[in-house]
Amino acid sequence: GLEHVTYPSAAVKGVLGRTLGIPIFQEQVIQLAMVAAGFTGGEADKLRRAMASWKKTGELLPFRTKLIDGMQSRGYDKAYAERIYQQICGFGEYGFPESHSASFAVLAYISAWLKFYYPAAFYAALLNSYPMGFYTPSQLIQDCRRHGVMVLPVCVNQSEWDHRLQVQGASMAIRLGLRQIKGLSHAGGRQLLQLRPAQGYQQIQQLYGLALNRADLQALASANALTAISGDRYNSRWQLLDTQHSLPLFSDETAGQVAQPPAPYLAPPSEVAEMLEDYAATGLSLQQHPLALLRQAAKLPRSVPAAELVTVRPNSPVRVSGLVTLRQRPGTAAGVTFMSLEDETGTVNVVVWLATAQAQQKNFLTARILQVDGILEREGDVVHVIAGKLVDLSALLAELNLSSRDFH
After folding, report:
1. Contact, 306 vs 345, CB < 8 A?
2. How far apart are CA 194 and CA 196, in angstroms?
3. pTM for the whole thing?
4. Side by side, which strands form the sheet with 171-175?
5. How far apart are CA 44 and CA 34, in angstroms?
6. What is the pLDDT of residues 39-52, one digit of tens each?
7. Number of alpha helices (DSSP H) and beta strands (DSSP E) in the chain
8. Relative to the CA of 264, which of 183, 339, 340, 372 has its CA 20 to 30 Å away?
9. Within 13 A of 158's CA, how many CA atoms are on the CB side?
């Protein structure tokens, strides 16, 4: 309803009426060439085939004269004919048959329905399908929790290999699976599950009898998967250093009579250290979001959270900060890169022009946490930031960790 739709003829309206005057589907281009420019069915089909690869082969160029001349001879304005040709050229970059559109629409509808009515199952399925699409497990978990779904950590006694649903009170929660642990072999995880006692593992020594290699054990400890039997990751790793169970003295039949000294208690890691290790071990964290910790520590002055960007006036300066979760440069975008920055409230869409990226290449390419000073643009519900200055804030987390350490 923002632009008035006009059609130069009833024939064109018959082809483009459903899409408000714009050719969207391949079938429409074929029909348009036939009814408006006098193409035969065979010529229109050649035009369809040429569209997909015209930038590489130039095969679309020979059709220009025939299309424009044919439309003019049938009373269409030359400017309109030229516009239709340019639309066909652009269409060749992304066009598809109408049947594909219907298939995608059905998938989008089903996905939205599942996410609304069965969010836990929806997110668990997406996580188990990874790698797929643009979103990392961390992004999916953040979105999942913002939609009210509880996510439970990896546990040696509760987790399966895949992520699964688990009853939690009156609702369903997602229990993270062993597959999320970096460095845990599939063979090690499979044996851990196959030999898991009905009552679960009770002490860390039980794991020594499995065919888990040292790397598997360390991966489990670092991912905090052994909390149920040996405490937090610090204490779990400490207990794994105890190799006395393998010494001849303690393998003797009298070993059970030897008094074992109590395991030393190590102070738990700080919240920042816990979060950093979570990301290192599993690629995600159920602790506070890194940006929330930085904001609480006053490390993000004047940076507007993603959820508050709707309150910023369009075309005004703004500063945003977040984890870089996506850098995408489509072939049709003429060097423009689309970035996604994730903070504790949501995702910020950032547009980086080629000149900006080239002038600040290091920060653009390597920053894990990025601050962007730019201009906010809004069209309806769509908000994005046109990047100006890029600042790498990745080192701030390490500084925060150092300042929060509690030495005992």
Report:
1. yes
2. 6
3. 0.80
4. 151-152, 171-175, 164-168
5. 7
6. 998 888 888 777 76
7. 19, 8
8. 183
9. 20
CB atoms under 10 Å from CB of 339, counted, come to 25
> Which of helix, strand or coil describes residue 298?
coil
Instruction: Look at residue 243 in the predicted model and tell me its pLDDT.
Output: 59
Answer whether residue 34 shows pLDDT above 80.
Answer: yes
| Range list of β-strands (E), 217-363 | 317-328, 337-343, 346-352
| HSE-CB of 319 using CA atoms within 13 angstroms | 8
Encoded amino acid at 150, one letter = M
- E-assigned strand segments in 148-284: 151-152, 164-168, 171-175
Q: What is the pLDDT of residues 291-345, one digit of tens each?
A: 999 999 999 999 999 999 999 999 999 999 999 988 888 765 678 999 999 999 9
Contacts 24+ apart (CB under 8 A), 101-108: 101/24, 101/25
* Distance (Å, whole) CA 308 – CA 310: 5
Q: Among 152, 1, 16, which residue's Cα sits nearest to residue 83?
A: 16
The pLDDT-based confidence of 407 (bands split at 50, 70, 90) is very low
